[in-house]
Amino acid sequence: MSRIIIVGGGIGGLAAALGISERGHEVLVLERAPEFAEIGAGIQIAPNGLHALDRLGVGEAARAITVRMDELRFMDGVSGAHVASLPLTEDYRAEFANPYAVVHRAELHRILLDRCLADPLISLRSGVTVTGYTQDPARATVLLASGEAVDGDAVIGADGINSAVRAQLVGDGAPRVSGITVYRAIIPMDEVPEDLRMPRSVAWWAGPHCHLVHYPIAGGAYLNLAASKDDGRTEPFAGVAVDEATVLREFAGLGETARRLMAAGHDWKSWMLVDRDPVSQWTDGRVVLLGDAAHPMLHYAAQGACQALEDAVVLGALMDGPSGELAVRFEKYNALRRERTARIQLAARWSTALWHPAGPAADERNALLSGLSETEMRGHVGWMHGLRDPLRDPLNDPLNDPLNDPLNDPLTVPLPNGAPA
After folding, report:
1. How much is the pLDDT for 393?
2. For site-directed labelling of 218, which of 109, 168, 249, 405 has its Cα 20 to 30 A away?
3. 350 near 414, Cβ under 8 Å?
């Protein structure tokens, strides 16, 4: 039995703890916050994420708290016209062997946390700040701000985009500032105009240099709103309160229908979106990165949580064997995961080419989307949504098919006529 230290008690860290303890290893999860809890609003869980949750033993519990979506709906945010929809019902669920669901981040975190608390091999410790690590051929040690050193056989950095473990392992400085501000609000569904509720849809309203996305959470009791504005700001910030009038002013380019939906929002908070460039190396001997610490991405592909869950499945499956082989197993995990996650990072970054064009470029975008068949739409998302087992089922990963390379997909690269990249 090895002793594995996981830095970070978010969704990725707790999922990794479950995957590793299943192989009979002792796990200690260190969390900086005073208690194990998750902040944030709604997240989308595509079929690949549900497959990962199944392999971690919490799929049934997770499905019980999600809301299944019936469509991904794309709206012209200026005219209010419905441009296109990808149905998420019979054919989609049959092809990807799972539904597409949405959930409040805290609810999913609670399921993982409860399972960790019930596992005798997993220990949880909160209120500790990790500053770095050391290692020798036989062990890895986490260094705490208090001066304490915590020994184990390996260290997993799952401590997010500002990871202290990544800072030492990769050393790539501060995250990349995107120049896009996102405004978020959660409102009771009964406060949303009835004709705009779309209780089974993830809906995008695309406008000039901005867009709005919304979907239900908490069993449909609330609507999660996230509005993005390409404003060119250069400094990061997080969780800054914004009044309703300011939000509506920032999205004056949207039409009456989308603005009526936003007007129902209150208690808005804003964040500058940040990510990092993909890197090829996430390992340093007995130390490895996972989730946002390894491959932080903008939320536009709705795959951040799903990719952390896939990481946890792969890393857990590779943990069989003696502790002396951990560095080799981490290298294999790195090799299995880096290409897929890098492509999703870039696809998420480039997706503003769909959301933010104006004028003729927006018209061209609408014509492109409205001309796609349902089968073609599933083909464009299949490389992300269709992976059932990131370790043992590589033939089902469309990344192996050069015809489905997302870097050549017109829906994930900048459009012509000056659409923003």
Report:
1. 54
2. 249
3. yes
Sheet of strand 26-31: strand arrangement: 122-126, 26-31, 3-7, 154-157, 287-289, 283-284
Q: Where are the alpha helices (DSSP H) in 351-402?
A: 352-355, 360-370, 374-385
409 pLDDT band, cuts 50/70/90, is low
Question: How far apart (Å, rounded) are the C-alpha atoms in residues 343 and 294?
Answer: 13
The pTM (predicted TM-score) of the whole model is 0.93
User: Rounded to whole angstroms, how far apart are CA atoms 417 and 366?
Assistant: 14
Residue 73 and residue 198 in contact, taking contact as beta carbons nearer than 8 Å: yes
Residue 421 forms part of a structural domain: no
Categorize the per-residue pLDDT at 242 as very low, low, confident or very high, splitting at 50, 70 and 90: very high
Instruction: Provide the residue range defining the domain that includes 67.
Output: 1-416
Angle at 87 between CA 90 and CA 100, to 5 degrees: 75
| CA nearest to 215, candidates 98, 390, 71 | 71
- Residues 6+ positions from 69 with CB-CB distance below 8 Å: 44, 88, 99, 100, 101, 102, 200, 201, 202, 215
Evaluate whether residue 161 is within a structural domain. yes
Q: At what angle do helices 11-21 and 105-117 cross, to 10 degrees?
A: 30
CA distance 64 to 62: 5
Evaluate whether 313 touches 391 at the Cβ level (below 8 Å). yes
Q: Is 263 left (phi over 0), alpha (psi -120 to 50) or beta?
A: alpha
- pLDDT, one tens digit per residue, over 74-129 is 999 999 999 999 999 999 999 999 999 999 999 999 999 999 999 999 999 999 99
Return the structure tokens found at 166. 């990544």
Q: Between β-strands 71-76 and 82-87, what pairing exists: parallel, antiparallel or unpaired?
A: antiparallel
Nearest to 261 by CA among 205, 208, 202: 205
* Calpha distance 349→96 (Å, rounded): 24
Give me the percent of the chain exceeding a pLDDT of 90: 86
- The tens digit of pLDDT for each residue in 309-366 reads 999 999 999 998 766 799 999 999 999 999 999 999 999 999 888 889 999 999 999 9
| Distance separating alpha carbons of residues 325 and 227, to the nearest angstrom | 46
Number of folded domains that form the chain: 1
Q: Extract the runs of DSSP E, i.e. beta strands, from 239-360.
A: 240-242, 268-275, 283-284, 287-289
Say which of 100, 183, 215, 300 is annotated catalytic. Answer: 215
CATH number of the domain to which 326 belongs:
3.50.50.60
Note if 215 is an active site residue. yes
